[in-house]
Amino acid sequence: MKTGGRLYGIGVGPGDPELLTLKALRLLQSAPVIAYQSATDRESIARKIVSQYLPGNQIEVLYHLPRALEPEKAKSIYDQEVEPIADHLASGRDVVVLCEGDPFFYGSFMYIFTRLSDKYQTEVVPGISSLMACPVSLGVPFTYYNDILTVLPATLPTEMLITHLLATDAAAIMKLGRHFTKVRDILHQLGIASRAKYIERATTTQQRILPLDEVNPEEVPYFSMIVIPTKQKL
Amino acid sequence: MKTGGRLYGIGVGPGDPELLTLKALRLLQSAPVIAYQSATDRESIARKIVSQYLPGNQIEVLYHLPRALEPEKAKSIYDQEVEPIADHLASGRDVVVLCEGDPFFYGSFMYIFTRLSDKYQTEVVPGISSLMACPVSLGVPFTYYNDILTVLPATLPTEMLITHLLATDAAAIMKLGRHFTKVRDILHQLGIASRAKYIERATTTQQRILPLDEVNPEEVPYFSMIVIPTKQKL
């Protein structure tokens, strides 16, 4: 039997605090400890999303993971970063880990889950992913009927991106950052640039939607996406 | 300028009423008219999910769409089915359309959106999709780092399913129903059956998780999914 505190991984959605689920809100407010990730020099985005709901008497645990880290390097860093969370659980305190978007969809919570869920009772609450939020914010029906959808990291080599884009009905291209120009050029080459929609920081107060060719490649943030919706007419 | 009532399409999530977002709940309770889909002989799943939140004084509009309809046939049926919704909007009444999962992700709301959003002010609220809910209910981290994810309808031809499954890191196979046996055999053929997880009616009180080879192909419901999570170790 598992003893100690309970571990919760809750998706807090893409940015709009109202896109939290009722379940995430309930758990968020019921635990004595909350934990969240932040780049070392910035405010935690996940904490900012839920800040208005925090009761104010919780212990807060910050963990750090530099972005775009190779998986092998990430492993050893996470081994260290989960320790304060594990200590609270061992002491019998429930810990709610905040996750931007959805915890199991490219989420950093998965590193915590794989390290602690064998030992502690664990519950995960799905969240609104940017994959759903971006098409909605863009106002474009995304996939329907028998469409194939492919989610592609922009970090992939050009040939691989082309192969997948040719084989799919709809696509989302994530992790654009410094790979934006490569992706934009591929979309033009394949003749699908006019269908492609660019959005950054969807559902936040800083949300921006721009025509693909008006995006400044030097200013593409991590939280951006190109959505290629179904070409089927409904 | 658009006049008349406002049209809302709100995702109500996969089944657990607590997976509604705060925004969906607010809009749901604020409109004089709600609309939802149902197979002609069954209770509406979307309405059932939110039933405990309904204030009890709303006009309810039911629309029908037989499942697995060819897009061309669906078009003419939807032309008719949106009429009662359009009438309420024309009369100045806001209408909230309930959508299982997410409205723009294989959702029937898209048919309503394409017909009415040009004429009436429209707002869409993303919902928790089964794509996020199923891996969470299965307890399997789904995609991470630079994974490619492909969402495949089981209705695709065998060769096409094989090509896509070989080219992706993680996959979700939807619309299983009578195509289950074909998909299961492909997964064995490709040697990935042991990674594949089967779930039906995720997050509802009827949720079932079964080993792939213990699923009775005669009893696979529409609301089922096979999840093939990343094989990367975190």
From TrEMBL, chains A, B:
Taxonomy, superkingdom: Bacteria
GO biological process, one term: methylation
GO molecular function: precorrin-2 C20-methyltransferase activity
EC number in record: 2.1.1.130
Keywords, ordered alphabetically: Cobalamin biosynthesis, Methyltransferase, S-adenosyl-L-methionine, Transferase
Protein's UniProt keywords contain Transferase: yes
Listed pathway(s): Cofactor biosynthesis; adenosylcobalamin biosynthesis
Database matches in Pfam families: TP_methylase
Keyword Methyltransferase: yes
InterPro entries: 4pyrrol_Mease, 4pyrrol_Methylase_sf, 4pyrrole_Mease_sub1, 4pyrrole_Mease_sub2, CobI/CbiL, CobI/CbiL/CobIJ_dom
Domain Tetrapyrrole methylase: 6-211
Family classification: Belongs to the precorrin methyltransferase family.
NCBIfam families documented for this protein: cobI_cbiL, PRK05990.1
Protein known as: Precorrin-2 C(20)-methyltransferase
Lineage, highest ranks first: Bacteria, Bacillati, Cyanobacteriota, Cyanophyceae, Nostocales
